[in-house]
Amino acid sequence: MGWAARIEAATPAYRDRTVDALRAVAILGVVSGHWLVSALVSDPYRPAALHGASPLAYAPGLAPVTWLFQTLSLFFFAGGYAAARSVEGRDRRSWLGSRVSRAARPVLVLLAVWLPALWLLSATGAPRSTRHVVWSLVSHPLWFLLVYLVLTALTPVLRAAVLRGGAWSVLPPVAVVALTDAAHGHGLPGWLATATVPVAWAAPYLLGVALAEGRLPRRAAAVLLPLGMAGGAALVSLAGYPASAVGVPGAARSNLDPPSLFTLALGAAQLGAFLLLRPWLARLLRRPAAWAPVAALNLAAMTLYCWHQSALLLVTFAGLLVGGLPGLLDAPTGDWPAHRLPWLPVFALVLAGLCSLFHRFEARAAGRRGG
Fold first, then answer.
1. Is 263 a domain residue?
2. How many domains, the chain?
3. Are 199 and 173 in contact (CB under 8 A)?
4. Contact between residue 211 and residue 278 where contact means Cβ atoms under 8 Å apart
5. Structural domain of residue 222, as residue ranges?
6. Dist. CA 195–CA 354, nearest whole Å
7. For residues 68 and 32, what is the distance between their CA atoms, to the nearest angstrom?
8. pLDDT tens-digit series, residues 95-116
9. For position 370, what pLDDT does the model report?
10. CA geometry: angle at 267 spanning 240 and 203, to 5°?
11. Fewer CB within 10 Å of terminal CB in the chain, N or C?
């Protein structure tokens, strides 16, 4: 049997392949988006001194591109679906422990590699700015996992809310985000911004639970897609929200810190498009050749997420040995975005190598929880 046929034969009949495809799109969007906006710039007078920059700070016209690569709502939607499907009939303590283990093992391995590496950088006299940007790139994506674990722990409560109110259960989180946005211009306390993060991401998570419980019909696309598109456009053009779906260095406000109504509107549009395309996607994924890469991405999703910025760092460090190259180590101005694109396959190749080394830890955790 070929690779695709083996994966097809091992896939349970009850698995919803469309949600797995959505998760695969989400992981590709986040990884590619980070690689496109995470510029590491070398000081021309001290090449080993690196600092972070973003092409969005120099080319605001690129903001619409971020709407394609900011796919965190899809992550939380798929997470809510998977959690709701797996919790039913299970002991909640053992269920939560297995899901925490699945998420925690890859993170612990990442820290076991990078904490000594950072100590080594410090011991060898690496510039402070370099150590700061390395730690930022490695650690910043992990906030998602903390929020994900909070929502996972709350799944029984969120599921009960969906069983009572259906998809309308998203309204309280949306209301909280709206109130937080309204308070933004009056000095938003740091604790409130932090508390709003899991509340905001609970909205797509609840919609994922609703799909799992049969409470999110395809006709909901007729609400989510136009409402998300029109709402996002109105927030940017009339209410002064940033057009970028991700943070921009130096900007007064970010749509992700904490997630804003624009972020929820973008997620609603993306999920509406998914519901609209879901029947076609289900037919496509019946083909083993289409399903196999989706399944492979899902099996390694946590490893890919944890290590994708490490791949960027390793390629960047290698670039220091040969000097500045277009799209690597230079300031993200002018044609930098076009020069960056050819580096994406290089990053992907290094990430594939890292996954071959470290995916075993995620696979062991999956095996212990039964897949």
1. yes
2. 1
3. yes
4. no
5. 15-368
6. 34
7. 10
8. 888 888 888 888 999 999 999 9
9. 42
10. 100
11. N
